[in-house]
Amino acid sequence: MAPKEAKTRQRRADGEMSRARILDAATEIAGERGYEGTSIGAVSAKCGLPASSIYWHFKDKDDLIAAVIERSFAHWLKVWQLPEDLTGRDRLMEVAVGTAKAFMDSPDFLRLGLMLALERRPVEPRARAMFVQVREQAFEALTRSLVDLAAGLTGDQVRQLAAYAVAGADGLFIAKEIGGDSVDLVAMFEMHGQALWDIAQRMIGEN
């Protein structure tokens, strides 16, 4: 490898590492303090990089937090990437348990996103728009999964189930945030998954 090419690759790797450090710090701070309580200065102090480095990667705080949400969601999509040999109820239960574990591994993503979603401002930040957008993507992914899992549901029933699934997941996350160790999130999501399956089967029977 030519020296010039090696230096280019090294700079790119260093840039990716710096960006990841910035995003990690911003995720932690925003999850604790919310959108308003997050600042470039606080992120700089947390990650140990100068503000100029942060501004090199991100236009402003809003751009940074939008990137936090987008990156976190990319990790969450892995919940739906299950082995093809899992079908029906088993696949749904794996998704439910995977979602619970994703909540526990990366709670800051949903905590921040829900805070942004519940706020109302004359000018909405791009970070809120990003959260709404990635939730729509999650809803569509869940809708496709339900179509595959429970053949026989109508389009309206699939969308209704998906909306119920997302709303229930939000509620369970909030219950965990409030209840702490007293809430077994995996067990709650197993119940949630079983309830979704039972409702789907009832709907199919009624059809």
Number of strands: 0
Category by helix and strand content: mainly alpha
| Termini separation | 64 Å
CATH homologous superfamily of the largest domain - what is it? Tetracycline Repressor, domain 2
Rg over alpha carbons: 20 Å
Catalogue the unreliable spans: none
Count of alpha/pi helices = 9
Give the overall shape, derived from the CA principal axes. Answer: elongated
What percentage of the residues does DSSP assign to strands (E)?
under 5%
Oligomer status: single chain
What's the CATH architecture name of the largest domain?
Orthogonal Bundle
- Tell me the helix content: over 70%
What is the H/E string?
HHHHHHHHH
Query: How many domains, as an integer?
Result: 2
Task: Produce the secondary structure layout.
Blueprint: H1 3-37, H2 40-47, H3 51-57, H4 61-76, H5 88-105, H6 107-118, H7 126-149, H8 155-179, H9 185-206
Give an account of the 3D structure.
There is one protein chain. The chain folds into 2 domains: 2-58, Homeodomain-like (Arc Repressor Mutant, subunit A), CATH 1.10.10; 70-206, Orthogonal Bundle (Tetracycline Repressor, domain 2). The longest helix is centred in the N-terminal third of the chain and has 35 residues, at 3-37. α1 crosses α6 and α5 (88-105) runs antiparallel to α9 (185-206). The protein has 9 helices and no strands. It has helices at residues 3-37, 40-47, 51-57, 61-76, 88-105, 107-118, 126-149, 155-179, 185-206. 81% of the residues lie in helices and 0% in strands. The model has no long low-confidence stretch (mean pLDDT 83).
